[in-house]
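hey m, so remember when u said the tokens were messed up on ur end? i reran from scratch. heres the input so u can diff it against urs
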Amino acid sequence: MIEALTALVATTFLLLGSPGPAPLALAATGAGYGVRAGIPFLLGILTGLAVAIVAASLGLAVLFSNFPSLRTAVQLLGSCYIAYIAYKIASGPILSDEGDAKPAVPNFVDGLILNLLNPKAYAAFLAIFAQFLLPLDQHWLSYASTATVCFAVAVLVDVLWLCSGSLIRPLFKRPRQARMLRIGFAAAMLLAVIIALGA
């Protein structure tokens, strides 16, 4: 059981911790707006991830395999929404220019929709449930325990991404570096989408 749990945690950490659209968006939000302002976005991402976990455990793969066009539609919708979030991050105000204007911080709904339409999340959990299901006596308990461990790892990983972004926040007070960093984060998000679509 310990070996199975270790493998599950390690795999989940690698799958969810790799630089995909959601982690990069969290890092950019932490860098551009700070950890406190990024918490609603983080909560939205985690809520969307919880839905992805439940959907994967209920057999979303069967639905996608029977209706391939549905999977393609979700991928396209997700890609468009991630591009919107990337634009929002790239075009956000730099700290010294914010003044009295309220910055357009990615919010709970942005995070929720981003992960609801994120094919990487569903694919990751389908793979996890297929290969790393915890070996417990009752089938439902195996799924519930695996899902709980995955979600706990996801919380840790996403908080780390948000906080890591906040470490470079001082650079966002320099106009030129701030704009370059915002564009860099946005470009990395778009690249992650292109790679995911090509996979």
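this time it looks ok to me. Residues 2-198 form one domain. if urs says something different then somethings off w ur setup not the seq
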